From TrEMBL:
The keyword Acetylation does not apply. PANTHER family: PROLINE SYNTHETASE CO-TRANSCRIBED BACTERIAL HOMOLOG PROTEIN (PTHR10146), PYRIDOXAL PHOSPHATE HOMEOSTASIS PROTEIN (PTHR10146:SF14). This is Pyridoxal phosphate homeostasis protein. InterPro entries: Ala_racemase_N (IPR001608), PLP-binding_barrel (IPR029066), PyrdxlP_homeostasis (IPR011078). Residues 11-236 form the Alanine racemase N-terminal domain. Belongs to the pyridoxal phosphate-binding protein YggS/PROSC family. CDD domains: PLPDE_III_YBL036c_like (cd00635). Pyridoxal 5'-phosphate (PLP)-binding protein, which is involved in PLP homeostasis. Keywords: Pyridoxal phosphate.
Amino acid sequence: MTDRETELAANLAQVEERISAACAAAGRKREEVTLIVVTKTYPAGDVRLLAELGVRHVAENRDQEAGPKAAECADLPLIWHFVGQLQTNKVRSVSSYADVVQSVDRKRLVDALSGAAVRAAREMGVLLQVALDVDSGERGSRGGVGPDGVESLAESVIAAEGLRLDGLMTVAPLAGPYAGRPRAAFDRLMEISSRLRAAHPAANMVSAGMSSDLEEAVAAGATHVRVGTAVLGVRPPLR
């Protein structure tokens, strides 16, 4: 085992312990929560090591980095999640490798993703990113649609060819009433998810929580947590 593989294995084991403990504390089964490792800024070699260690879900947030990395790892049994804010001019590229796009927050993006999925003859999962730092009708500072816009955006996805509505995603907000209150933010997301599932039972995925607040996300009921730093280490600065 290389030093890097030993490091990643130890970090993964620690994260696994945290998720298991959080599930036990919340009275949930461990298999109810899926770990997504956010591999942004780290090389394809790390993705390979993670796959050898049993990781199946990986996430990226910048297409110019994600595309080549996904191509380099195309032989691995991985599910790729795109979690960054997405411009429509990157949609064609993202649709070539992403199995799930977690950051859908406007109809124009739904339409672009649908066209790209149809051209690529594949189905993509979609999560609606919910912004919890805005009033009605606005986009959040880190992307996302306000809670009151979720229903109509969901209907757009349902009607779009090549897309599958999988559920909701949020990032704990830095401003607004939920700033510094990740548990309250994730509880609010679960309320919105309950309403969505009443209309669309298959849209049951809830992606919330990162390295610093995964316990709060598990306690609230998240089905997926997105962990980068706690697995891969402190990120090198972007050049």
